[in-house]
Amino acid sequence: MQNLYNRVLRGEFLSIEDALRLYISAPLAELMAVAHRMRMQIHPQKIVTWQIDRNVNTTNVCVSGCKFCNFHCRLAETDKSYVTTMEQYRTKIEEMYALGGEQLLIQGGMHPHLGVEYYEDLFRALKKEYPWLKLNALGAPEVHHLARMAKCDYAEILARLRRAGLDSLPGAGAEILDNEVRRRISPGKCSADEWVEVMRTAQSMGIPTTATMMYGHVETPRQRIEHLLIIRDLGNFTAFIPWAYQGRGTRLEKEGCAGGNNAAEYLRLIAISRLLLPNIRNIQASWLTMGVQSALMALHCGANDMGSIMIEENVVSAAGSFNTLDSERMEQAIRAAGFTPALRDQQYNLSERLPR
Length: 356
Ligand code: SF4
Description:
The protein has 15 helices and 8 strands. The chain is of the alpha/beta class. The protein has a single domain, classed as Aldolase class I (TIM Barrel, Alpha-Beta Barrel). Strands 1, 2, 3, 7 and 8 form a 5-stranded parallel beta sheet that branches. A 3-stranded parallel beta sheet has the order 4-5-6, covered by helices on one side. The radius of gyration is 19 Å and the shape is globular. Iron/sulfur cluster binds at residues 62, 64-66, 69, 71-72, 109-110, 141, 186, 189. Keywords: 4Fe-4S, Iron, Iron-sulfur, Metal-binding, S-adenosyl-L-methionine.
């Protein structure tokens, strides 16, 4: 193990076999200590960053039908379905602005009737009314969906969205980047190769991207590590954000896959992510899904960012995760864990909280 620890601390890219051995066999306490050492090499100051943004869902209508998702519904379910109106965006943006935020995380279902023109009009309208607003919007599966509807390539969709106001592309919808796993849990979503291709295209166009991972369902330890190595080999992500699948009430739970919060498994995953991704500067702790206490422990084994306070969230709460943090409690929690909180923007630049 010592040889593997030395190699990852030098920033070496491990092979799949070595990475898997490290993940499976290293004692948790050692793995956490080495990951924290690497975090302090990359970020020598004991600063933990956080952000104020607002999650807004465009629509809950989705043709994908992922088995882990309680949020979506079909177009025919008219009693449940919605498309967020401009008036609702205005209210949400003004509430966020009053709290010091300047970015919307816009995500939602893959609606069969909302094509790229819809999102172009939406982004343009938002930017016209709120020129200061940053749009961290859609994700690889949605870009793939829009490209398929418009019968054009990813570069064209991304170029049109960027011209309309897209600032960055979130890393959502990665789950586990393995086609067999995706066939089992989200057969209607883009394949692993398509997710990678959207991200590669976005990065080649200079659009900032993050990457995620949802583990703890049907995947094997090897598939987790392969996911990490795909993210590493693609590189260029501003941050990596892993979390555990939350299964309450989902179709996947009914099929026998309960998921949930196993803190030890989460800390091992955070630590191995830090160690296997030397080319990705930021590892984000997911307090929303894993709980604040687990997220604070993650700050001691590789994570250096706590993500955003949550003004609104509809997707993981639909699967039984109800954690909340406002700005004050976020800063208190980071201090209680022994770090100095620092507000950041989407590019992980430190920023001042604007007086409102
Ligand atoms: S996770 Fe996203 S893509 Fe999958 S069904 Fe839910 S809304 Fe649709």
